[in-house]
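Why predict the complex rather than its parts? Because the way molecules touch one another can change local conformation, and only a joint prediction can capture that. The input here totals 230 residues.
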Amino acid sequence: SQQGEEDPQALSIQEGENATMNCSYKTSINNLQWYRQNSGRGLVHLILIRSNEREKHSGRLRVTLDTSKKSSSLLITASRAADTASYFCATVLPLNAGNMLTFGGGTRLMVKP
Amino acid sequence: GAVVSQHPSRVICKSGTSVKIECRSLDFQATTMFWYRQFPKQSLMLMATSNEGSKATYEQGVEKDKFLINHASLTLSTLTVTSAHPEDSSFYICSARRDRDGNQPQHFGDGTRLSIL
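Output of the joint prediction:
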């Protein structure tokens, strides 16, 4: 079964608006990562946040992590049409408990020009 | 940046054919490589993890005799779909990582769309 569940499954917004995607997971983690996938392409790594971190920024991206609630969010500010893609969260379990990425179901984001 | 090249990008072949997909890390040494399968509008399903020089670890339900994985060097892993059938049609994606522990991000190839007629 999937470790992460994402919410919403699909999101449609206008260019310039902010987009927020949420991810919940079930077990303790070593780190959580967000990836982006354009249609028919591979995944691009966006941000990695470790279990002892609460927030990270990268350009227009902001990721938060709440380990007490086992949840994370990805905020894209001032969205652009080029941000249209699927966004996946993925978790890595603590060391010695498996070190592969386990992906959530993804959020399909559409940004209308 | 870290670049992963996956080849070919698209394969169309007849049922019963074996298909080999290559995954190369172009500018870094990949201690660990992964193979995923993705169905339309779904998430990635991990098929197997391979560490250089050792046998691949397959996920439950993945037939190791059907999906042969070789990770012969720190920059190359191959996935061979043996005697492919229409139900093997899918989008296959590889990824590579510098470390074994999962503290580094994975870098993905652009995927291979496999269509078995």
